[in-house]
Amino acid sequence: MNKPIYINGSVLEPVGNEDDIKIITHVCNNRGGWGKGFVLELNKLSPLPKKEYKKWFQYKKYKGIDFDMGNVQFVWINKNTVVANTIAQNGFFSQYNKIPFSYTAFTCALNKIVAYINKQQEHYKRFTFSVHVPYLIGCGYGKGSWNLVERVLQENVCKKGVKLYVYNYKKR
Predict the structure, then answer these.
(1) By CB neighbour count within 10 A (0-12 exposed, 13-18 middle, 19+ buried), where does 126 fall?
(2) How much of the chain is in helix, strand and coil states, percent to nearest 5?
(3) What is the domain extent for residue 28?
(4) Residue 130 pairs with which residues in a beta bridge?
């Protein structure tokens, strides 16, 4: 699988077989902020990703994972859906921080997601894992470039044999 699969719909309703394990991946900042952008929609799916992210930020190390750029927190919200809170945005947009999104941190986080999938696959042999992201991930408040983000996704997810779904959601 070398190319993303584009879906018209919500990443919060990931496609795939009923037994597949879907990892909904999004970008978090490293300042503990959770109140703008995609996370507002994510809150409607489950309160757990926000709750776990806030604990992670508060304690700086939570469940053995340091709260650092490029790290990932995996939050299981049901038996088939995991939210990957990735720390790939350094602060917030300002006149002094024109592009808070970090391609390096995002690359590192994606590699950790793929490693997580490979490890989980050892235990859940009959399940297929896939990564699900919103279209323009990292490009809203992070101010990243979609052309570059898409390339990072292809190189670090698709080319490693993991199915990647990109969702273009239009609010009605």
Answers:
(1) exposed
(2) 30, 30, 40
(3) 5-168
(4) 22, 163
Distance linking the first and last C-alpha atoms of the chain:
32
We report the CATH number of the domain holding residue 34 as 3.40.220.10
Nearest C-alpha neighbor of 81 from the set 128, 20, 35: 20
Encode 2-12: b = buried (16+ Cβ within 10 Å), e = exposed.
eebeebeebbb
Instruction: List, for residues 104-150, the tens digit of each pLDDT value.
Output: 999 999 999 999 999 998 888 888 999 999 999 999 999 999 999 99
pLDDT in tens, 44-75: 999 999 999 999 999 998 888 999 999 999 99
- CA-to-CA distance for 112 and 125, rounded, in angstroms? 19
What is the pTM assigned to this prediction?
Answer: 0.95
Amino acid type, 123: H
Number of domains in the chain: 1
Residue among 157, 152, 147 nearest 107 (CA): 152
**Tokens for 23?**
């990892």
